[in-house]
Sequence to fold (173 residues):
Amino acid sequence: MTADKTNRLVPVRVPEQCIVRLRGQAVLLDADLAAIYGVAVKRLNEQVKRNASRFPEDFVFQLTGNEWTNLKSQIATSSEHGGRRKLPYAFTEHGAIMAATVLNSPQAVHMSVAVVRAFVKLRRMALSVEALARKVAALEQKYDANFRDVFQAILQLMTPPDPPRRKIGFDAG
Fold:
């Protein structure tokens, strides 16, 4: 929680909850980054434009109309980012940190550490999921033949035996 100009407590969103995937990258939208850093979206975007040489395309990019429409439908909120006249900007991990340096507010500097940690946590999760997928694929290949034999043996055990035949002849018992 942070205090705004009227000393009301304003909830700060956790950076991990704000990160979205666009163009194959993990990014923060300008409105989310501005909220995390405690500045207005307009001020954030002004500083980015004033310091354009610090923000190459691999640090920040503007969404297309289709990307924005798809993203709004995925996050199922239009009130939080809605009513915009311009398409939002997306900041990669490096762009989010660079934004903290150009904003130079105490909250931006403090929260930039949380932003870095959020991106690192996301990267670790992605790597662990990829490693798990590789291990499962290797296990499937390794044990496929063995499990096929076991499965056939189980099927044979589950097959009911032939019904007992009636003996031919006289039974004295």
